[in-house]
Amino acid sequence: MQDLQHCTVLREEAVDALLWRPDGIYIDGTFGRGGHSQLLLTRLGATARLVAFDKDPQALAAAQQITDPRFEIVHSSFAKLREEMAQRGIQQVAGVLLDLGVSSPQLDDAERGFSFQADGPLDMRMDPSRGESAAQWLARVTQAQLTEVIRDYGEERFAQQIAKAIVARRERLGPLTRTRELAEVVASAVKTREAGKNPATRTFQAIRIYVNQELEELEVALAAALALLEPGGRLVVISFHSLEDRKVKQFLKKHAQAPRLERRLPLRAADLPAPLLKLHARIRASAAEITENPRARSALMRSAERTAS
Ligand SMILES: C[S@@+](CC[C@H](N)C(=O)[O-])C[C@H]1O[C@@H](n2cnc3c(N)ncnc32)[C@H](O)[C@@H]1O
């Protein structure tokens, strides 16, 4: 395994937003290389607990180096938060952190197949031990479904042309197996270049989101987190692109409003059900952090607090 480091985004800010009860039970849904978890452990009390999740076997191996008895790593999707907590007899937690997307080690290791910059096998799974790789999916997908995925998850204007080029190339030369092959086919189909952006950026993002079911799992995890939070508990989510952020924003907004009632119900204002969440201000990385870590530029952190209702 290469020793690749992840540069944690909004490290202090996320931990400050999450930690309010030093003896609570916390969840880090995206351990990565543990930047947030490690800082949290330095601030938590002796009786606290931190349960971390990651799908990636390499993240799991990194987490297993932590010998702190308050810490536990679970090799699972954060979509399984509720089941995993139930198995541990945990009904409520003080905070849930989700730092979404891929880690720098995943992007920088060409063998993982996430990068269009370095050639590698076309994999893109966060957990290569489960499910279908990008190459396997691209070998069987229809042009119509591929167009839809590239359009919806990549917000790519040339989705149709790209899907057509991928299917034509597959029919002519056999399935695509390398990231460079995919990047070249995409580049040949994209007619207008976006300044400073590789033409394959949007397509790679789309395929990665699809292969890892990122948006579906995020939706499940947000609902599970809300159900697990104790009154005062915090939900902190860092997202890196508009599709993720839209899901988070809509979810938080929905639960920060009082549930809708029949308009004519004879209730007094004081009897109306209160919202489940109180929103905190959203936060972006500082100019200093962005200079040090350009990936922080697109990060947006939203957080909220569970009310007592
Ligand atoms: C941005 S990194 C997190 C970095 C981490 N906060 C740190 O400071 O090192 C995202 C991590 O979440 C993991 N991940 C993404 N989606 C996941 C999911 N649905 N379930 C579990 N882990 C996931 C990825 O494998 C990756 O290691």
TrEMBL record:
It is found in: Cytoplasm. GO terms for cellular component: cytoplasm. GO terms for molecular function: rRNA (cytosine-N4-)-methyltransferase activity. It catalyses: cytidine(1402) in 16S rRNA + S-adenosyl-L-methionine = N(4)-methylcytidine(1402) in 16S rRNA + S-adenosyl-L-homocysteine + H(+). The lineage of its organism: Bacteria, Pseudomonadati, Pseudomonadota, Betaproteobacteria, Burkholderiales. This is Ribosomal RNA small subunit methyltransferase H. Belongs to the methyltransferase superfamily. RsmH family. The gene is rsmH. Gene3D superfamilies: Putative methyltransferase TM0872, insert domain, Vaccinia Virus protein VP39. S-adenosyl-L-methionine binds at residues 34-36, 54, 78, 99, 106. HAMAP family: 16SrRNA_methyltr_H. Signal peptide: none annotated. Keywords: Cytoplasm, Methyltransferase, rRNA processing, S-adenosyl-L-methionine, Transferase. It comes from Mycoavidus cysteinexigens. Pfam families: Methyltransf_5. Specifically methylates the N4 position of cytidine in position 1402 (C1402) of 16S rRNA. GO terms for biological process: rRNA base methylation. Its EC number is 2.1.1.199.
